[in-house]
Amino acid sequence: MSQYVVQRLASFDDVDKDEWDAVLNQSSVQTVFQLYSWNRLVWEEHGCDELILLAVRTREGVAVAFAPLFLTEKNGRKIIQMITALRGDYADILLNVMHAKISIQVILSYIFKEYSEPSIFLLEKIPPESSLLSIAPAVYRKTIITDGAVCPSLIFETETPESLSKKINNKKMRYYHRRLVKIGDYNIRHLTEPEVIRPYLKSFFDQHISRWAKTPFLEKRERDFYTSMVDTLGSSKVLIFSVLSIDEKPVGFHLGFGFHRRFIWYKPTYDIEYSKYSPGLVLMKESIQYALDSGYTEFDFAAGDESYKERFANYARQNHDISFYTGEWNYFLERSKCVLVVAKQHIKKLLG
């Protein structure tokens, strides 16, 4: 480990974005939520806790890992978490796979040396392809891994053209599409330019507020965050804003992402006055077709196992949470809880 060093960065201004991108390109998890721009955006919106922004370098000064973390307090316990988990559906420490094990060792060593008080170092929303899942328990004994959210997905390459067509253009989807087309001039646009997207944002927020009583868009802070997201990610062409219109009136919107050949379904909404025409499903159908036509290999429905996703998905990605405990007692208690939960689930299955 003496050949590797942890560098504590004071802010995201101190990060070399090219180095970040280089590490990301060598990481086992590569989604929009690991981008430098996403992490910086989320932190600037949150930014009320202590930033712990770490880089791991070789003796020659080459960056091989970045850990965008923060220290917070919940229920009287100090916890270290990942910034991207505040907003993203997938989180991970950026690790060059060739240096992943040693990087995790030096990060853990730094964390537990500098922060002896936190009872938990919590890494949430870790997808199954992350190298952390195999490395973490191998390098640190007091590690607990639990199941997180299920993220359904449609992998295009595992479908034949015929089976894919049946999913996207089945009888029910054609029916919904025809009904919308009949009531007016039907149009779908997939936008990437911030200056083109921005004028639609008020309608996007208003539709979401009308559709969901507990929408976060009731808060100005949330609306400002999404506006900044459009400006920041739209300029890098990873944000895709879809507008479904009838007679030039928007009846549905979707804000999603396209990165590393994966399209992520993130924030949809529609005009409740058109509910009987199922604009949400039509918009999803159009988005899947757009992803397919644009060369993406996967349409990721992201976290949540809502029933409508099952109509299209052919794969379910199981996220995990990784917890590192500093104290033996806390570790023992949490371990016991996990064993009890598993035992109850097993008994439930046996009893039918």
Euclidean distance between termini CA atoms: 50 Å
Total discrete domains: 2
Number of helices: 12
CATH architecture of the largest domain, by name, is 3-Layer(aba) Sandwich
In one word, what is the shape? globular
Mean pLDDT: 91
The CATH class designation of the largest domain is Alpha Beta
Describe this structure in words.
This protein is of the alpha+beta class and 352 residues long. The chain folds into 2 domains: 4-150 and 318-350, Aminopeptidase; 160-313, Gcn5-related N-acetyltransferase (GNAT) (Aminopeptidase), CATH 3.40.630. Helices cover 38% and strands 29% of the residues. It is built from 12 helices and 13 strands. Strands 1, 2, 3, 4, 5, 6, 7, 8, 9, 10, 11, 12 and 13 form a 13-stranded mixed beta sheet that branches. Helix 2 packs antiparallel against helix 9 and helix 6 crosses helix 10 (279-293). The mean pLDDT is 91.
Short account of what is shown:
Helices cover 38% and strands 29% of the residues. By secondary structure, it is of the alpha+beta class.
Key attributes of the depicted protein:
Aminopeptidase; globular; 352 residues; 13-stranded mixed sheet; 29% strand; alpha+beta
Itemize the secondary structure elements and their pairings:
Elements: E1 4-9, H1 17-24, H2 36-46, E2 50-58, E3 63-74, E4 77-82, E5 94-95, H3 100-114, E6 120-126, H4 132-139, E7 143-155, H5 161-168, H6 171-182, E8 186-191, H7 194-197, H8 201-211, H9 220-234, E9 239-246, E10 249-259, E11 262-270, H10 279-293, E12 298-300, H11 307-310, E13 315-325, H12 328-350
Parallel strand pairs: 4-6, 11-12
Antiparallel strand pairs: 1-2, 2-3, 3-4, 3-5, 6-13, 7-12, 7-13, 8-9, 9-10, 10-11
Helix pairs in contact: 2-9, 3-4, 6-10
